[in-house]
Amino acid sequence: MSAPFPTKSPKTGEELSAVTATPASEVPEIVLRAREAQKTWAEMSVAARCRQVSKVKSRLLGRAEEIAKVVSEETGKPEVEALLSEALPSGDVVDYWTANAEEMLESLDVEIDRLAYPGKSGWIHREPRGVIALIQPWNFPVALPLRTIIPALCAGNAVVFKPSEVTPRSGELLVSLFKDVLPEGLLGLVLGGRDEGKALCEADVDLVVFTGSVASGKKVAATCAERLVPCALELGGKDAAIVLADANLDRAANGIVWGAMVNAGQNCASVERVYVDKSVEKALTDKIVAAVKALRPGVDIGPMTTTQQREIVARHVSEAKEKGAEILTGGEVGEGDYAYAPTVLSVKDESIALMQEETFGPVIPIVGVDSPDDAVKRANGTRFGLTASVWTRNVKKGQALGRRLRAGVVTINNHAFTGALPGAPWTGVGDSGWGVTNSPFALDALTRPRFILVDRNRAKKELYWYPYTDTLRAIAVAFAKLRGGGPFTKLGAILKLLTLLPKRLLGRDAKAAK
Ligand code: NAD
Description:
Number of domains: 3
Bound molecules: nicotinamide-adenine-dinucleotide
Distance between the termini: 73 Å
Largest sheet: 7 strands, mixed
Radius of gyration: 28 Å
CATH class of the largest domain: Alpha Beta
Strand order of the largest sheet: 10-11-12-9-8-13-14
Structural class: alpha/beta
CATH architecture of the largest domain: 3-Layer(aba) Sandwich
Helix content: 40-55%
């Protein structure tokens, strides 16, 4: 096993229940069972599948407090946050897909030129991929996996889910919600770390959906490349919030503090850089510092989930301090093994890790900028591109600026919450990966198009079948002129075709060629 499961809660310090890892050698068998179950599942109508899946909603919401408790114990996030970010939006995910999947998965007619291809009709069907390996991180251990599990099942797939080794109990609870709702084995569970994740990628799966760090994402992509299995990667972020001179500074400060501190900053879409117009830099900074100082440890903000993550945060902040950043509040580890004090810094040197790498902690670096253009240039200056926000009273200007940001999601006067909207695509560019969750675009990875063509042409031969003759060549040239020439060339081509086509279709050109 690559990583032992945590045995004590970062929140309470109390012992957590024991977890048994899935031996990597058993992974192929779990995938095989999923594949068997998927065959009958895929034969059911989309409506019937959605009816089954929709039953999970009442379990999810009925057990919301239990889910919040388990997630909170494993991750350290406040229970209210787990209710708001894990349980409630997941009910919306079930509703969205079970209400819309049938229409989204409908077959599409393909338009076919009747003259060039007489008697032919074609349709695109959206076929399930088959068995999907779902490898997930620990920061939102219920909400994130459900954003793939629900649409994947509605589309006719089986899913084998490997939760993070940090949150196996949340993963087990999630899978238990589907008990007796799905055919046995259709939703498989693999408990373990990197090695078990690798074993799952190497098993007989048809797609890997991975959410996690850039480093692991690259390894997953390499493993998938060896087997030519497609993968969808949702990776880290270094999100910027741009505050223009005309922004509502109270809203911007409160929104940025929430966007940066939710889940103790352990959110792929956390605000990790603030670029503010110098004319309002002091006013905004004062408000941010006041709002951060008002956060109540253990009530509004929990400890960090892992000691390793706290070490990364401490390293980024101490390097920033050494390189001249001014700590305005926080900047040190908190009580116990996991807490890190919510931190605000004023930064000038942007070459530091705090401004280039994912920090994934409760830290807000603020940089004063000369103009909106300066802010856009700096915001686009990392390898990441997940989400970004622009804060301004001029919504038109905000949108225009937003279109210039290298990010998969841009919000004007808000940040990071749109992952909770099942109809809005969640995606990134660059090192943030290329996967898409939520919205009909998620189905592009979870299904593959199959084209079916029916030919009702009764002719013995198509025009373009053998033998190749001079007449066929002349017809090809005439078609090119008909499609690409001016009016007179087109007319000449039509006249030519009127004599050439009957000759070809009656087979006289072939006889002449003998
Ligand atoms: P991680 O990369 O350490 O682990 C993620 C998952 O991958 C775990 O289940 C782990 O066991 C597994 N894994 C690790 N190495 C593997 C390998 N070689 N082959 C197969 N599986 C492997 O990430 P983490 O620390 O759990 O999560 C935090 C990261 O996730 C952050 O970078 C965060 O930004 C990112 N994240 C991204 C999004 C998004 O939507 N873009 C959402 C949440 C989290």
